[in-house]
């Protein structure tokens, strides 16, 4: 569990990483909820990496003899309308759902973060362009915008990643802009100018590393939203297509069976979804305490 | 004066729970204040002087707790008092003034209202008379046009005015004890004088007691009856203000007094005895920097309502002149002091010379090159960049929190110098040794270094490229006096060894006196007076200079 924060924070020096680990241990010891969310994250990542090879059944294999079986010792989460094992499908879906969320957040982190830092640091036209771009995106209901992007570009995993990244752009751009703005006239930025650093170099080597921790916290908080967004798109049929195991589709497929009493088809993927979002939200709060103890609420 | 003290602190110890176990910030402190007495607690940062006062008010943060001892306030044991009664006591019986007046005021509420709130909270005024009472209180703290200022928001007032409002808030309910925690740090000397005079006068007129917490021995001596010196959480000496300066008994008190800049003392006098005297300074050489008719204008915020602006009827106002036609010269090997109160344009001037800011008009000539015409944005890559460097005011803020000391010092060499690899590493070690920074500390990050060590890193970075001119922007303002004494000596040593010129920007005339050959007094963007340090400070020609000099509190010699 100790290697997770190190992964989340690309730190320049090992001694700083060592410090961070000590600090992380301190925060986790004093904050069991964060420790729990770390464990949960570890479990989810474990499922994503190893899940498909651990599950009892092939998540795609249908068996019409055992359709819509309630949870039992054989099928812990029951089976769906095609007789597929729901436990296997829920676990197998972790990789796709976390993958979409992770790559979309990584993409918006890179693009939105850079654009925001440049806007805050250079001001002027850069700021105006990035700001208006963010405003334009904010003008749409975000989920509708994501639907539109996927509908226009096509129903592929890449486009879901792209759509999720686009709707998160304003958030990242604004946070990065604000943080860059307060650091623009900081003493160490002036000092970097005196040392002969050009503006672009200051942006990349001085400002950016200093706002990374804050952005990393935002990344974790947005992960939960990104998972919901991806699942939501699939739920309304604009995302991943069946029969691929994915939480959103599974809930959508199971929804029609709730009325007839087969609650388990929708419940378990829904629970998995909730757990993942819950985990990232808790984790974000905990990360904020580690990175920036002043903002603790 | 009765025998029973108003506030009696006995054996007070305060503990803080930290990651590395509990830390005792205050250790068995005894302190008493009689009715009508003014007592100063003096100490450097980390001495526990503020924590002691927080413990009295019971406003320690969550990690802190009073471990033992008793606090008695006019017969009441404050430690055992329930929180509800304590709340009633704060503000009505014991008031507090904090260091940053702006932070202590609610920024979105009119100051008059804030005074009313306090009055009504403690039942000193009703709905009907609250406003009149608030205005009367404003009048008492010498706010001109109080009925008008009642409607002002904190941001509309200057730092000194805000501190007056805070004092008004603290004194509104006529408390018996006023605790002032560094009430004038961050204010100009003339403002400091008027604020302190006001506090003394009001407390004396009402027979109040005052506990003044300060790092400034001069301030303590000028305004207090008794001085308590604290070091590392303990009281090391308590004596009358006059005695303690005449015959300080504790070695720490002596060290502190020695380190305080004062008239008649040279740079070396600030250090413990035994430092070698300076070699004779060479006569200043040829002119290095010439500044002529330097002007910096800032556009004013547009006034007039939104509708007026919409209709294009807003009157175009003349831009604000932060620097209004400054001219001077610095010669090689010379140090020039630039003195003035906040907002006089001294920092703007230094930023323009530093080429971090473009002037509106005027010429800056550096060693024959017209550097004023090179845009600030492009100056970073100019070959002249390495010859003009700067030491910043706040050593913490000016170091990148993510770079080690070695990286900070080597940054200018990497960008503008030629040394690389092992040669660079050995040059960084050489520089560290030169500024007295232990080489073992080079791998540390700013938050792992003390204030003095950070100042040394900043100085090493500034001299890394052997600059001809170094601008020192209040380099010791954020440091304790004992550290300041060492850093000032270091700066002077370096100047003599490396033959640099200094432009020393400061508001502290005592420090300027120590380090500079010539001094310029600035006011409202203009030069008020210029001349050799001894002449300007001993026989000031301008009335403003005399006023500045008179406002400095001095420990009795």
End-to-end separation of chain B: 30 Å
In the CATH scheme, what's the topology name of the largest domain in chain B?
Answer: Rossmann fold
What class would the helix/strand composition of chain B place it in?
alpha/beta
Strand content of chain B: 15-25%
The averaged pLDDT of chain A comes out at 81
Radius of gyration of chain B: 26 Å
C-alpha end-to-end distance of chain A: 24 Å
Number of E strands of chain B: 20
* Secondary-structure content class of chain A: mainly alpha
Domain count of chain B, please report it: 3
Low confidence ranges of chain B: none
Shape of chain B: globular
Q: Reading side by side through the largest sheet of chain B, how are the strands ordered? A: 6-7-8-3-9-10
As for the number of domains of chain A, it is: 1
For this structure, what is the CATH homologous superfamily of chain A?
MetI-like
Account of the protein in words:
The complex is a heterodimer of chains A (297) and B (557). Chain A has 297 residues and is mostly helical. Chain A has helices spanning 3-8, 14-30, 32-54, 86-122, 124-138, 142-153, 157-183, 187-194, 199-235, 247-258, 264-291. The model of chain A is unreliable at 1-14 (pLDDT under 50). In chain B, α7 packs parallel to α8 and α16 (451-463) runs parallel beside α17. Chain B folds into three domains: 1-93 and 177-259, P-loop containing nucleotide triphosphate hydrolases (Rossmann fold, 3-Layer(aba) Sandwich), CATH 3.40.50; 101-174, no CATH class; 288-298 and 319-551, Rossmann fold (3-Layer(aba) Sandwich), CATH 3.40.50.300. Classes of the chains: A mainly alpha (297), B alpha/beta (557). The A-B interface holds A 11-13, 15-16, 26, 186-188, 190-199, 206, 209-210 and B 19, 354, 356, 377, 380-381, 385-386, 389-390, 392-394, 397-402, 404, 408, 411-412, 414-416, 443, 445, 458, 461-462.
């Amino acid at each position: 569990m100790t290697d997770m924060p190190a992964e989340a924070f690309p730190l320049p020096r090992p001694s700083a990483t060592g410090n961070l680990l000590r600090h992380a241990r301190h925060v986790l010891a004093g904050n069991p909820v964060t420790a729990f969310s770390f464990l949960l994250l570890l479990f989810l990542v474990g499922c994503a990496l190893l899940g498909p090879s651990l599950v009892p059944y092939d998540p795609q294999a249908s068996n019409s003899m055992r359709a819509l079986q309630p949870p039992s010792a054989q099928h812990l989460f029951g089976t769906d309308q095609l007789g597929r094992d729901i436990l296997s499908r829920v676990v197998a879906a972790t990789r796709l759902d976390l993958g979409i969320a992770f790559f979309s957040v990584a993409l918006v982190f890179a693009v939105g973060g850079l654009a925001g830092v440049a806007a805050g640091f250079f001001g002027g036209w850069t700021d105006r362009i990035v700001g208006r771009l963010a405003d334009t995106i904010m003008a749409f209901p975000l989920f509708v915008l994501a639907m539109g992007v996927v509908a226009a570009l096509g129903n592929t995993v890449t486009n879901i990643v792209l759509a999720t990244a686009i709707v998160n752009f304003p958030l990242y751009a604004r946070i990065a802009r604000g943080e860059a703005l307060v650091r623009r006239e900081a003493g160490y930025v002036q000092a970097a100018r005196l040392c002969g650093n050009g503006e672009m170099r200051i942006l990349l080597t001085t400002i950016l590393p200093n706002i990374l921790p804050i952005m990393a916290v935002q990344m974790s908080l947005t992960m939960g939203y990104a998972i919901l967004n991806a699942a939501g798109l699939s739920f309304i049929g604009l995302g991943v297509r069946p029969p691929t195991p994915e939480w959103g589709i599974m809930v959508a497929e199971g929804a029609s069976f709730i009325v007839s009493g087969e609650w388990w088809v929708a419940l378990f993927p829904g629970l998995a979804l909730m757990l993942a979002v819950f985990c990232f939200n808790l984790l974000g709060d905990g990360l904020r305490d580690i990175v920036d103890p002043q903002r603790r609420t | 004066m009765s025998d029973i003290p108003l506030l009696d602190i006995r054996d007070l110890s305060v503990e803080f729970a930290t990651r590395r176990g509990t830390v005792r910030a205050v250790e068995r402190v005894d302190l008493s204040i009689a009715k009508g007495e003014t007592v100063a607690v003096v100490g450097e940062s980390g001495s526990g002087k503020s924590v002691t006062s927080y413990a009295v008010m019971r406003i320690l943060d969550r990690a802190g707790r009073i471990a033992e001892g008793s606090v008695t306030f006019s017969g009441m044991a404050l430690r055992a008092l329930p929180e509800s009664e304590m709340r009633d006591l704060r503000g009505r019986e014991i008031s507090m003034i904090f260091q940053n007046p702006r932070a202590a005021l609610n920024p979105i509420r009119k100051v008059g209202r804030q005074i009313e709130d306090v009055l009504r909270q403690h039942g000193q005024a009703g709905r009907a008379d609250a406003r009149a009472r608030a205005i009367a209180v404003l009048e008492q703290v010498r706010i001109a046009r109080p009925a008008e200022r009642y409607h002002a928001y904190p941001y509309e007032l200057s730092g000194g005015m805000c501190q007056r409002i805070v004092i008004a808030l603290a004194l509104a309910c006529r408390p018996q004890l006023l605790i002032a925690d560094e009430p004038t740090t961050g204010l100009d000397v003339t403002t400091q004088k008027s604020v302190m005079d006001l506090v003394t006068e009001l407390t004396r007129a009402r027979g109040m007691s005052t506990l003044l917490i300060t790092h400034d021995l001069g301030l303590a001596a000028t305004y207090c009856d008794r001085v308590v010196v604290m070091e590392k959480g303990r009281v090391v000496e308590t004596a009358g203000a006059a005695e303690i300066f005449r015959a300080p008994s504790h070695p720490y008190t002596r060290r502190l007094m020695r380190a305080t800049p004062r008239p008649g003392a040279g740079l070396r006098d600030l250090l413990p005895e035994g430092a070698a005297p300076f070699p004779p300074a060479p006569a200043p050489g040829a002119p290095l920097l010439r500044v002529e008719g330097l002007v910096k204008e800032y556009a004013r915020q547009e006034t007039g309502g939104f509708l007026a602006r919409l209709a294009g009827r807003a009157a175009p106002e003349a831009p604000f002149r932060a620097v209004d036609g400054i001219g001077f010269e610095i010669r090689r090997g010379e140090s020039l002091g630039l003195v003035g109160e906040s907002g006089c344009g001294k920092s703007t001037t230094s930023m323009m010379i530093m080429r971090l800011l473009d002037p509106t008009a005027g010429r800056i000539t550096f060693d024959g090159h017209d550097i004023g015409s090179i845009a600030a944005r492009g100056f970073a890559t100019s070959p002249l960049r390495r010859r003009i460097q700067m030491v910043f005011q706040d050593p913490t803020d000016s170091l990148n929190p993510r770079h080690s000391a070695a990286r900070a010092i080597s940054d200018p060499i990497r960008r503008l110098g030629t040394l690389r690899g092992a040669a660079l590493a050995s040059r960084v070690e050489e520089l560290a040794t030169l500024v007295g920074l232990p080489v073992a500390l080079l791998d540390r990050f700013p938050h792992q270094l003390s204030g003095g060590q950070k100042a040394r890193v900043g100085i090493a970075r500034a001299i890394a490229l052997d600059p001809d001119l170094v601008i020192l922007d209040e380099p010791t303002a954020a440091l304790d006096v004992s550290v300041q004494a060492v850093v000032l000596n270091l700066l002077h040593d370096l100047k003599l060894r490396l033959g640099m010129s200094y432009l020393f920007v400061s508001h502290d005339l005592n420090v300027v006196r120590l380090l500079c050959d010539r001094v310029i007094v600035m006011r409202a963007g203009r030069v008020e007076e210029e001349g050799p340090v001894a002449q300007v400070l001993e026989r000031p020609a301008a009335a403003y200079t005399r006023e500045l000099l008179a406002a400095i509190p001095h420990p009795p010699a």
